[in-house]
Design brief:
The protein has a domain of about 30 residues. It is about 45% helix and about 0% strand. It has 2 helices and no strands.
Length: about 60
């Protein structure tokens, strides 16, 4: 079955902007395990990255 645009069962998001870009970074195994044990770690990491970028821009 082919994908149909505007499918009533299609994926939707509650975010202001869809999360379509991917960023990856390498960390040690212990850090990855600890990070993934935090509930909602993806959103928390995104927020931390936004704060880092805002503080970086404020310093420039």
């Amino acid at each position: 079955m082919r994908f149909q645009k505007d499918n009533k069962y299609g994926f939707t998001t509650e975010k202001e902007q869809p999360l379509t870009a991917s960023v990856s970074l390498r960390v040690d195994k212990e850090l990855a395990t600890k990070l993934k044990s935090i509930p909602g770690w993806q959103d928390k990491a995104r927020n931390a990255l936004n704060e880092l970028i805002q503080s970086w821009n404020a310093e420039s």
